[in-house]
Structure formats: C-alpha cells, structure tokens
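Study this pair:
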Amino acid sequence: MTVSDTISDMLTTIRNGLILSKDYVYTPSSKLKLNILKIMQEEGFIKTFKEEDVRKGIKKIKINLSYVNGEPSIKLISRVSKPGRRVYSKLKNLPSYFKGYGITIVSTSKGIMTDKKARTSNLSGEILCQIF
C-alpha cells in the first residue's frame, strides 16, 4: 500500500503510540521527517530519534516518545497542509498555537522551522503541522 501523505502518517503513528503508552514507535525515513523530528526534540515533545537501516537503501526512524509524570508530552498534534490542500501563510498571518504554548511547524525558503523562529527570521511559508 502506498501512502500519499507521509508526514500525516508519521504524526498518526506518534499519536497512536502515545495513546497506547508506547516507549517508542517506528516510521519510514525521509529528510523532511527528520527535520520535523529535530524541531520536536528541541521543543521537548519527543525524547530522541534515530535513523536505522532496514536493508540496503531502506531506512526507518525510531522515535522515543516523551512522558511527563506518566502523561504524554504531546496533547494535540495535527496536520494543517495536506497534499490535496496546501496551506500557506504570510508573515503577519502566521498562526500562534495555543497562545504560544504550542508550536506551528513551517516550511520556509530557509528550511523547516517553528513559527517563533520564522517570525524572528522574517520568513513565511507552508504550514506543515501544529503541536501542543
């Protein structure tokens, strides 16, 4: 089965792993996913992630999920821009998620970054997902 939206698939895998209180989950690897996971790790939503070889040319990512006092670090995680409907935002309309307690991950011309970093860099772009 082919997956048309791999980012949404990764976010759903993380969401399901948190619901089942798993320590880690696996997802197929890509550069975009690694960049998104790097931001999630910097913001404290996941512990760590590591790319592993399955066989020659095929890699997967092991994502260690984070919990605080037995509760998941991620309360809400949602995909905004989808393959059938891309969502772009100008700098002045860049959304703040849960009044700054959550993050919005944005794909800009300078790479993948949070909404806060995009504002300080004076960049706008495609809104990938939001996490709280």
Remarks:
- The mean pLDDT is 94.
- The longest strand covers residues 46-55.
- Residues 48 and 118 are 24 Å apart (CA to CA).
